[in-house]
Amino acid sequence: MKVLSLKASSSPPFPPLANSRTISTGDSMADSIEQLFTHKAVDKGDDVTLSCKYETSDPSTYLHWYKQQPKSKPVFLLYINLFGGKTNLMPPRLDVEVDKTNKKVDLIISSAAVSDSDLYYCALKPTVTGNPAALYKNLHTVLLH
User: Region annotation Disordered: residue ranges (predicted)?
Assistant: First the structure.
């Protein structure tokens, strides 16, 4: 029996500050990030991988993951740079991997629980206190069935 449902959505649950997947960095090339799936269903206790594909010309880029509960602001979870350097204090049951060859970043949730039922965002820039344009349209939702 499937307990959790994962979805990617192009419509955030709050008014967007920007409506673009592409984030301008001032360079001639634009950086971007987008989700790689539209729906996943998982059982409680399963491991879950949420993936985003990125494009960047900046080798010092940090790829960020956020979590948002209903009617709340997004909360920073973790980051990884393109060389594999991660957040110093990783949240329990979460890990992150970057694949530079395929330009993909994965958030891995071990042993999915009901408490993981939230909206997950991938972003190229710090979003809660930084550039909000990187946040919108790059989201994954974990929902109960």
Answer: 1-23
Which neighbouring-strand residues pair with 143? 5
Residue 96: strand pairing partners: 107
CATH of the domain at 40: 2.60.40.10
Among all chains, which residue has been given the structure tokens 């042993």? 111
Quick one: tokens of 16? 């967007």
Residue 114 phi/psi, 5° resolution?
Answer: -55, -35
Q: Whose CA is closest to 118, among 54, 71, 51?
A: 71
Q: What DSSP character marks residue 93?
A: T
Domain limits at 38? Answer: 4-144
Give the model confidence (pLDDT) of 62-105 as tens digits: 999 988 888 888 889 999 999 999 999 999 999 999 999 999 99
Amino acid at 99: D
Counted domains in the chain: 1
Q: What is the pTM of this model?
A: 0.73
Put the strands of the sheet holding 139-144 in their side by side order.
Answer: 39-42, 4-9, 139-144, 119-123, 62-68, 75-81
